[in-house]
Design brief:
By secondary structure, this protein is an alpha+beta fold. The protein contains 4 helices and 14 strands. β13 and β14 form a beta hairpin. The chain is globular. The protein starts with a strand and ends in a 14-residue tail after the last strand.
Length: about 240
């Protein structure tokens, strides 16, 4: 599988895309197996398909290990990991946790105290009532993506803790802007939540994104992502024309 962002740059891995690829292969009779392996720029991923009425309804993906080492992400920082590290981006202070899920992620947990203190800058600060929904991600996202501390750019996730093993997130993806959902981003969010003591290891964690829900299970050996697959439309593209 190869995946390209909206700006034409090639992504190393995409958790939502790989589920769609598996559904396409199965539903069109190319690979009629409930277990698949798909090669990506970040390595081979193992998938298990749930079939209903002859079509793929959902897919569970072994997304590989979450990596916290700065050189693996990459992020220009000292130490063995970047966990809730205060940094200045775009003139405002954020506590970031950096994770690689085959591509780089910077995760920020939004807390009431941060909001009240205006930690996101006066223009971008979400209100207590609106929380994550009012965050000006169009303004903040590019500042994260292109900050000098991320030599390969970065995907930025902003997260609210809704309850035990329940999170809500918005994602700014490098090369694409804000997206309705991000599989690797959801995995990075849960990995960061476990690292910060906000969620339990080995537990199914619900991550609510604007486009729907993903279930993420983080372990030391691998991160597992489960999500629905629904055919939205079909079409044809002529790639041989002028």
């Amino acid at each position: 599988m190869r995946m390209f962002n909206a700006d034409g740059s090639e992504g190393r891995m995409c958790g939502n895309a790989i589920r769609c690829v598996a559904k396409y292969l199965y539903d069109n009779g190319m690979v009629r197996k409930a277990d698949m392996k798909i090669d990506t720029m970040s390595g081979v991923r193992e998938l298990r398909l749930t079939i209903a009425n002859g079509e793929v309804a959902s897919v569970r993906v072994n997304m590989g290990r979450a990596r916290f080492e700065p050189s693996e992400i990459p992020v220009l920082a000292q130490g063995d990991s970047v966990i809730s590290k205060p940094v200045i981006i775009g003139g405002a202070e954020y506590a970031i946790t950096c994770v690689s899920m085959g591509n780089p992620h910077a995760v920020v947990f939004i807390k009431g105290a941060d909001i009240a203190a205006g930690a996101y800058g006066e223009a971008n600060c979400p209100t207590r009532s609106g929380g994550l929904d009012t965050l000006d991600l169009r303004a903040i996202g590019p500042l994260f993506e292109h900050d000098a501390m991320f030599p390969d750019r970065v995907n930025a996730e902003f997260v609210e803790v809704l309850g035990q093993n329940s999170l809500k997130a918005r994602v700014w993806e490098r090369g694409s802007g804000e997206t309705q959902a991000c599989g690797t981003g959801a995995c990075a969010v849960v990995a960061a939540a476990v690292a910060n003591g906000l969620c339990g290891i080995g537990a199914d964690v619900s991550v609510r994104l604007p486009g729907g829900e993903l279930i993420i299970n983080y372990t030391d050996e691998a991160v597992y992502m489960t999500g629905d697959c629904v055919r939205v439309f079909e079409g044809a593209v002529d790639i041989g024309g002028s």
